[in-house]
Specification:
Chain A has about 260 residues and is mainly alpha-helical. Chain A has twelve helices and no strands. With about 325 residues, chain B is mainly alpha-helical. In chain B, about 75% of the residues lie in helices and about 0% in strands. The chains are: A mainly alpha (about 260), B mainly alpha (about 325).
Amino acid sequence: MYVALIVALIPLFSVLFEVFKRGVGVINLDFFTKPTPAVGEVGGGVANAIQGTLITIGLASLIAVPIGIVTGIFLSEYGDSKLSSIVRSFNELLNGMPSIVIGLFAYMLIATKVGFSVTAASFALALIMIPIVSRATEEALKLVPATIREAAIALGMPKWKTTMFVALRIARRAVATGVLLAVARIAGESAPVLVTMGYWKWWFAGLDRPVANLALNIFLFAKSPFENWIALAWGSALILIAMILGINVVVRLLTRERSP
Amino acid sequence: MAGQTKTAHFFDKLPHDKRRPRALITGDKAFKAFTASVASIVVLIIGLMTYYLYLGSRPSIDRFGAGFIVGTEWDPVKGAFGALPLILGTLTTSALALLIALPLSLGVALALSEYMPKKFSNVFSFLVELLAAVPSVVYGLWGLYVLIPFLREVVYPPIRSSLGFLPLFSGPIYGGGVLTASLLLAIMITPIMSAIMRDLFALTPSTLKEAAIALGATKWEAVKLMISYARSGIVAATILGLGRALGEAMAVTMVIGNKFQLLPSSLFDAWYTMAAILANEFIEATDELHISALINVGLLLLVINLIVLICARLIVWRYLKVAGGIMRE
């Protein structure tokens, strides 16, 4: 049994070790302040990709967080209606859908009209976030003690106020962790980003244009024959992993503190 | 899930409901209608997704029909497209990945839930979860520059010299290829599968094991009993892992060699998968039929995935009925 565990964990340590070893050398001030270097150019950085990733994540969250939270409220407050079991199943289907298929849908729905753009990419990433956020909200609301809701009801509060201002307020930290985990998940998504905006080596230039993206940069750089780009791929992987694993560790610490 | 929604229901059935001021009831009704309509968006999305991918596939479907699924040629210049090699590549790599990942994740789940002291198992569970959080493109990068050289220099040559009499393990070694892609997929789906199985084992009634041990069974025999008790849950976890493997694009395209052929000459040979060709060609495709054929591949992937997920769902449902709510939603 322990052998299986060790075998399964070797890749994790190897990934962390190699990414750190090969990535740490490129990390300097230029890395965070300069945009993608042209082919053959020395140096350069991923500043435009960091900007683009933040914009994409921000837009996706703007769409997904309200929808996800309200869906989660519905699932927890009206959890045994017929519709809620349907919604729960479809949520699961959406969660299991290959991200590249979600990307193709966003391409058909938006990119064919607006063009390859950050709007289309954010929409695709939002669809990945919704099931994660709604599930986290549902679980969080279910953990709110019934006595607190009963107290609110006894004071004459209607159900909707009890849910929105009492239960959701108590559950807000757990909801926030759900949102954070969803952000960590989409920060690393590259396939849906690729089919909705392609490669972009410049800065943000409007919502109807693409932006650069860290995860996608890794793919573009890794396949290239240029030493400089390959080095940048490892550097990008390092900051991406640091961010994603950082979020996971923080969430872990937060949730452990809450439930002893 | 059933037990916890009781409170929500409790308020709806309050006897005082009828005597509450009208405004409050209207507020609650509006609230329910609002949340219900937002929640329905998810249902709408899956419907629209299927419809729009069908719409995008129309030129390809009109041209090739069902022949697209059995066609073995992929030539954008001639305008001939068939997806059979991609389907075979996808199914083969995913099946191989499951073959590797199933015993591995079963072992991990048992180590975490049964054998390890709770103090350590928390830490190791978290490490396994971290493994699931690493982005697939980083696995691809690692696969390309670390795993491939390692397999090519250290692992594959002895395999070929000892098992080379089998056609599966003969032929030239490139490093990347079918086996490498399957290994990488196995690494990627093991954390997901083992996390589900771990929860499953944690939920099996302890009386089952205690009874077995009281009757003189060894720990291993008790564990075997538990595995057989949880078997349909294990099947469901495996199917979910399969779903993940089928749709993985970036990591696979970076290590499989991306060669469009009906069958590879050996497990060391390059091949292609449905998701990999999408990652590789979609952005460069300019011809309308080519784009449509790629979207058609996406539609096939969607349909295969829906079937897989629904199967997992049905098994879990049956399981829930049999075990009386042992696995929570």
